[in-house]
Amino acid sequence: MKIIKSGPGMTGRLKLAAALLVALFWFLLGGPFYIVGPEEVGVVLTFGRHTSTVSSGFHFKWPWPVQVVYRPAVNVIQRIEIGFRTLSNDPPSYISFDNDAEMLAEAEILTGDENIVNCAIIVQYRIDNATDYLFNVRNPEGALKDISEASMRMVVGDNAIDAALTTGKLEIQNRMMDYIQEVADRYGLGVDIVAVQLMDVQAPAQVSGAFKDVATAREDMQAYINQAESYRNERIPEAQADSVEMVNEALGYSALRVNTALGEAQRFSAVATEYDKSPEVTAVRLHLETLVDVLEASGVTVVDESAGALTHYNLVGGE
Amino acid sequence: MMKRVKRIAFLLIGVFVLMVILGAFFTVTETQQAVILQLGNPVRVIVGDRTPEEMAEIETWMAENAPDVGLSSGAGLYFKIPLLQQVRIFDDRILEYDDPPADMVTMDKKHIQIDCYARWRIQNPLLFIRSVQSENGAMSRLDDIIYSTIRQEVGRSNLIHLVRSTNDPIGLGEYVWLVNAVTSTDTLEDVVMDANGEIVEIVRLVRMPIGQGREALLEDVTAACREMASAYGIYIVDVRIKGANLPPENQTAVFARMQAERNRISTRYRAEGMRMSNIIIANTDLMVDSILARASRMALTLHGVADSTAAAIYAEAYGEHADFYRFSRSLETLETIFDSNSGRIIVGTDGIFQYLVSEPGSIR
Q: CA of B30 to nearest chain A CA: how many angstroms apart?
């Protein structure tokens, strides 16, 4: 104030403006009030000592350097990526162990059956206790990343490669989550682990062909079986149809044969009954009719043995 | 002129006095601890918040090693004698220690790259300032302590004990189910069976002595390091293995083995498919043959029955008129024989040919 009064004219005004600017900065940065956002809490330090924690809204405080306020976001779920990094969300672009040597080193794990597998995981967490998060650990996010990497190696290392690749994923995730939470609590990180997700688990590129071939082989196995089954599904109905045909044919033959027999027997009986009424006449008639039929059509020579070779009846019809 | 000099002198004195007064106060925040030095000698230690046990430990140590140094705890506003005393601020949080991976050899002579990290805290600032001075000084001591301890423990363990943490059997999954018999010196395979004696899963058991495995090993390492680091006023929270990978030259062998293992599995799958396919085809052929055989038997039976029925019918009808049958049938036969229009010579007039020459009606 003294300085401002002493300076006349333009310099005085300049000084006034400078002082106002300083006051404005002081107001904005360390001034007597602050606003805590809805997802934040305000942790108030008085001369460096934590004196109160306030919820969202507008608050007054002593100006810097007496009181300082930290405003960590406590209700926001944050994530740590291991074995891959999201470069941008829109459009989605990543680097992962497929295309980045550094990520590969981070993702590579020696499994319990001494195979090598690449894992990419996400650890989701939120700040549970703001003061613990702020005051207990330097670089809490780095600490959480270290814990996550250690837990991923430990849990997957305690499993077989097939568990990591197929059926054991859920159990592995749960074990990792428990382990990360346990160590984080030991450090007093003040975070709550919300979820651990195995994003991508792959056999290393050097052997991925062989792993893919296993899947192909399994499909081949199924294909062989399917082919055989389609052969069965084709052949058996075919054989059944053939057998029905054979039986039907036999039934047809049977019906024809029996009915023919019945018919012929009936006809014979009828003729025989007629014959019995006057056997001599009928016999002569039948005999003669037959002779006519036989001898009329064909040239037949009958040789009488008893009469010698030269005696023969030439029975050519009509001559 | 004099007036101006005087004003400047007053101003300078004012600023100086203000600086001295302000210099008498300093804050120690929640994340800090401090040591007040008087001409280079520690006179007061301000530690962060400690549990009563930790506090008692520090008090005991100070009573023995620095009886004339004061002790306070907790963050807040503190006073010192301006100009005469200086403050050295230290971090009171858990700090990071990380180092590049190092190649180590296990007891079973396998090479492995261990990447470990540690978390530590300045537990006793006075001892810390006396022995290592700064965080950088502490780092080089931690390098020595942690790496030598880990190397020693790794050298006492087999590789599998470094990789596994528990003795829980590992399910080897469907693949090994097919291939089976993948054993090494430290492991053996076993099967899990259900109540009916059906095999449910093949598992690998690790024969680790109690107190082995990565977790147990790290606990030992942490305890040993903690003991050594306490001489520097450092408390080691834990030491953990972040990475344990095979060196690139050994990976080649592992990849070859993995490849061979998978190839065996693929072959096994295909062979299994072929085997099952052959079984299905053979079964099908058998079924087809038996279906056709059954049908054929049925058809033949039907033929037989029909023929015998017909024979019986004929026999019954003809039996009643045996003479007429012979007579009429003979005539019919003759008719049939001479049906075709070709000339023929018949030698003899026996049998049915007698009808050709006999008196009509004489033979009946």
A: 6
Crossing angle of the two packed helices B322-337 and A208-277, in degrees rounded to 10: 110
Most distant CA pair in chain B, distance = 193
Give B174: exposed, middle or buried? Use CB within 10 Å, 0-12, 13-18, 19+: middle
Q: Which residues of B are less than 8 Å from A153 in CB distance?
A: 241-244
Do B270 and B155 fall into the same domain? no
In a domain? residue B217: yes
Which candidate, B155, B169, B154, places its Cα nearest to that of B241?
Answer: B154
CATH number at B144 reads 3.30.479.30
- pLDDT at A52 (0 to 100): 87
Q: Are residues B219 and B261 in the same domain?
A: no
Report the alpha-carbon distance of residue A8 to residue A60 in Å, rounded.
Answer: 37
If one counts every other C-beta atom within 10 angstroms of the C-beta of residue B8, the result is 10
Number of domains composing chain B: 4
Token pair recorded at residue A22: 């300083």
Q: Average of pLDDT values for A160-182?
A: 89
DSSP alpha helix (H) spans, chain B: 2-23, 52-65, 125-131, 135-155, 159-163, 173-179, 214-229, 248-320, 322-337, 354-357
pLDDT at B303: 93
Tokens read off for A66:
């007496």
Residue B157's SS3 state is coil
pLDDT per position as a tens digit, A173-224: 999 999 999 999 999 999 999 999 999 899 998 898 998 898 898 889 889 9
pLDDT at residue B312 greater than cutoff 60: yes
CATH topology of domain A78-203: Tetrahydropterin Synthase; Chain A (3.30.479)
- Judged by phi (left if over 0) then psi (alpha if -120 to 50, else beta), residue A141 lies in alpha
Beta strand A57-60 with A67-70 is: unpaired
Question: What ipTM was predicted for this assembly?
Answer: 0.71
CA distance B66 to B176: 65
Going by pLDDT thresholds of 50, 70 and 90, the confidence category of residue B211 is: low
Contact indicator for A244, B292 with CB cutoff of 8 Å:
no
Of A49, A108, A287, the CB nearest to B355: A287
Residue B245 CB partners (closer than 8 Å, separation 6+): A105, A108, A109, A110, A116, B101, B112, B113, B115
**Residue B197 CA neighbour count, 13 Å, CB half:** 0
Q: Are residues B39 and B84 located together in one domain of the fold?
A: yes
Q: What's the pLDDT band for A167 if we cut at 50, 70, 90?
A: confident
Lowest mean pLDDT segment, chosen from A211-225, A278-292, B135-149, B191-205: B191-205
Q: Does A269 touch chain B (CB under 8 A)?
A: yes
Q: Quick check: B341 contacting A, CB < 8 Å? A: yes
The answer, yes or no, to whether the previous bond of A8 is cis (omega within 30 of 0) is no
Q: Say how far apart CA B76 and CA A47 lie, in whole Å.
A: 5
Q: Hey, is the C-beta of B248 within 8 angstroms of any chain A C-beta?
A: no
B213: phi then psi, degrees, rounded to nearest 5: 100, 160
